[in-house]
């Protein structure tokens, strides 16, 4: 092969290689929309609850109970999504446990599931006062309702509801997805 032919072949190959990124950019575009994730409450985990031998004669001002709500988030897309935020109002046996916020990003690969644990710590006195003021309950009834709810959480029998939204992102896309979940 002559030097001119070798040079022509080399220049042709160099031109093709230089053009490949442009062709690759045209053929592989990112996602055009995000399909809603599947979100569910997977478990409610009592961590540090008021003792079962509860004695209402002691000061309820010092009583705090902590439990975790564990969400499972499944990505039905074939690309990675990120949960940027998760905001939820959590209720147990129709008693508000407050607004909870989890910052991301929490990455969920395409077709995969991740767990997100939201800790909740509440004070018995504040919750009792909330029921007295907001629901116009008698003090004894409000205290009993709180005691029964703590016990139900410990026994795995509480009905937990979470209402809120997640912000999902992928590439330059962003989407807010609302949810209203119940466990069990």
Tally of contiguous helical segments: 3
> Average pLDDT across residues?
84
Number of strands: 7
Order of helices and strands: HEEEEEHHEE
Envelope shape? elongated
Which structural class best describes the helix and strand composition? Answer: alpha+beta
Measure the end-to-end span: 77 Å
| CATH 2nd-level architecture of the largest domain | Sandwich
Sequence of strands across the biggest β-sheet: 4-3-6-7
Describe the protein's topology:
Elements: H1 3-27, E1 38-48, E2 64-74, E3 81-92, E4 95-108, E5 113-123, H2 124-134, H3 139-155, E6 160-170, E7 173-183
Antiparallel strand pairs: 1-2, 2-5, 3-4, 3-6, 6-7
Helix pairs in contact: 2-3
Task: Describe what you observe in this structure.
The protein has three helices and seven strands, in the order αβββββααββ. It is of the alpha+beta class and 184 residues long. It has two domains: 1-30; 38-183, Immunoglobulin-like, CATH 2.60.40.1820. The chain is elongated and about 100 Å long. The N and C termini lie far apart (77 Å). The model is unreliable at 23-27 (pLDDT under 50).
């Amino acid at each position: 092969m002559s030097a001119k032919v070798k040079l022509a072949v080399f220049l042709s190959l160099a031109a093709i290689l230089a053009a490949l990124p442009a062709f690759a950019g045209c053929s592989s575009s990112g996602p055009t929309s995000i399909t809603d994730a599947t979100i569910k409450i997977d478990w409610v985990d009592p961590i540090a609850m008021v003792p079962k031998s509860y004695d209402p004669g002691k000061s309820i001002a010092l009583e705090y109970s902590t439990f975790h709500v564990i969400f499972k988030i499944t990505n039905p897309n074939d690309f990675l999504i990120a949960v940027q935020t998760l905001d939820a109002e959590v209720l147990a046996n129709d008693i508000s446990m407050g607004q909870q916020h989890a910052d991301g990003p929490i990455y969920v690969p395409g077709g995969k599931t991740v767990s997100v644990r939201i800790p909740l710590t509440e004070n018995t006195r504040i919750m009792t006062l909330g029921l007295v003021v907001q629901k116009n309950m008698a003090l004894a009834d409000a205290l009993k309702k709180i005691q029964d709810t703590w016990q139900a959480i410990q026994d795995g029998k509480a009905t937990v509801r979470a209402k809120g939204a997640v912000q999902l992102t992928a590439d330059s896309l962003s989407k807010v997805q609302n949810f209203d979940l119940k466990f069990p």
